[in-house]
Write a structure and sequence with these properties.
single chain; 14 strands; alpha+beta; two-stranded antiparallel sheet; 10-stranded mixed beta sheet; 276 residues; Pseudouridine synthase; disordered C terminus
């Protein structure tokens, strides 16, 4: 991939698609705002369109496709492509968000949790199926983002001193998991990421907890929530589970080997665009 761009956006008639390696604890919108500001300065075009082809959770890293200029017209097409992730699924506990954006709310027995039990359970999750999205997600429910409803319900539960119960808020969606492979099994929590300290999203403190974690490769269709898969794997093993790490390794025809860091992107778009 080129390490610099000309100053004329007209030199890119099809626009620019950048497979950005999204930093940990950054939202997809954070990345777009940063790149858009840099691109507008670089190309000198105030109405320049910049968007992404499929959001990535704040606590996930990996490929976020950033589209600049005419390439924004391809966003929907790119979103339809198959995706691949490497996920850390930690067993024996749950969180309201199914990842570490929220603190652990319940702990579960580990009697049926083992590497052998997980290997036996995985084949049942391969194929076309219905999946209920996490309530803490960008999915729209009656015109309202699910995470807005979730945060309201969580605040109400905390204020009233009762357990958080999202109830029957979300309907299931049809998704496909093409392949599901257990990469490794660990008897303790594994968090495979680099935190640059610049992200604004808080992370639950799980220090001192010792819970088994599986690293799983997931190839899936658009609309698949890996956090929901973690939840379902926990239930399949008669326990609870949450996503302790997530990295998107393939999207829109790009592999993680093609990805560039946000810092590199800002350097391509001019020396005045480095991260704050």
């Amino acid at each position: 991939m080129t390490r610099s761009f000309s100053r004329n956006i007209e030199d890119y008639p099809e626009g620019i698609v950048l497979p950005v390696d999204k930093p940990y604890r950054w939202t997809s919108a954070d990345v777009i705002r940063k790149v858009k500001y840099a691109a507008i300065r670089h190309f000198g075009k105030k109405n320049l369109k910049v968007g992404h082809a499929g959001t990535l959770d704040p606590l996930a890293t990996g490929i976020l496709l950033v589209c600049i200029g005419p390439a924004t017209k391809r966003a929907e097409e790119l979103q339809r492509s198959a995706k691949e992730y490497v996920a850390g699924v930690t067993f024996g506990a749950t969180t309201p968000s199914y990842d570490l954006e929220k603190d652990i709310d319940c702990e579960y027995p580990l009697d049926g949790v083992s590497e052998a039990a997980l290997r036996a359970a995985l084949p049942a999750f391969v194929g076309e199926q219905d999946q209920v999205a996490p309530l803490f997600s960008a999915k729209s429910v009656d015109g309202v983002r699910a995470y807005e409803t979730a945060r309201r319900l969580l605040r109400e539960a905390q204020r009233e001193g009762r357990a958080f119960d999202p109830g029957d808020v979300l309907q299931s969606s049809r998704i496909t998991i093409y392949d599901l492979e257990l990469l490794s099994w660990h008897e303790d929590i594994v968090q495979d990421f680099t935190d640059d300290g610049l992200g604004r999203i808080r992370v639950a403190d799980i220090s001192g907890r010792h819970l088994p974690t599986a690293m799983v490769r997931v190839a899936c269709s658009k609309g698949t929530y890996i956090r929901a898969l973690a939840r379902d794997l926990g239930e399949a093993l008669g326990s609870g589970a949450f996503l302790s790490s997530l990295r998107r390794t393939k999207n829109g025809g790009f592999g993680i080997e093609d990805a560039v860091s946000l810092e590199e992107v800002l350097q391509m778009l001019g020396p005045d665009s480095s991260p704050e």
